[in-house]
Specification:
The chain is of the alpha+beta class. The chain contains 3 helices and 7 strands. It has a single domain, classed as Roll (Hypothetical upf0131 protein ytfp), CATH 3.10.490.10. The strands form 2 sheets. It has a 5-stranded mixed sheet. A two-stranded antiparallel ribbon has the order 3-4.
């Protein structure tokens, strides 16, 4: 097994993206950036309400009708992955995301209760585009 094979890939979609306020949580766990890409168009992205750091919530659509959402794929060593995941607060969690090329990786998903009052920002294609909209 190579060093790369022993690491776990995780897709991030919001506050953990490069340049965003929680990215340090990945780098502190010896996370390395792999690539930027999009999900398959089967997700919706919501701007979650509340919290001291703005975050999005990604939800996979049962009817497979959604948008391709920008993500970054990172790799973490297994122990770092465990520590990282242990600190994720509700309503966020880790599930399996399907990327544009069909690869499946672990990634952030959101519990549906949290999107009741959250605006759907899927049409923007990602968190960075949403943040840029707010600055206009």
């Amino acid at each position: 097994m190579t060093a790369s094979e022993s690491r776990i890939k995780i897709a991030v979609v919001g506050a953990h993206l490069t340049g965003q306020p929680l990215n340090y949580q990945l780098t502190e766990e010896q996370g390395t950036w792999v690539r930027s890409c999009r999900t398959q168009p089967i997700y919706k992205l919501y701007a979650l309400q509340g919290g001291s750091i703005p975050k999005p919530g990604l939800i996979r659509q049962a009817d497979r009708q959604g948008a391709a959402i920008e993500v970054e794929v990172w790799e973490l060593p297994p122990a770092g992955f465990g520590r990282f995941v242990a600190n994720i607060p509700s309503p966020l969690g880790i599930g399996t995301l399907v990327l544009e090329d069909g690869e499946e990786v672990k990634g952030f998903l959101c519990e549906p209760f949290a999107i009741v009052d959250a605006p759907d920002i899927s049409h923007l294609g990602g968190w960075r585009a949403y943040l840029a909209e707010g600055k206009k």
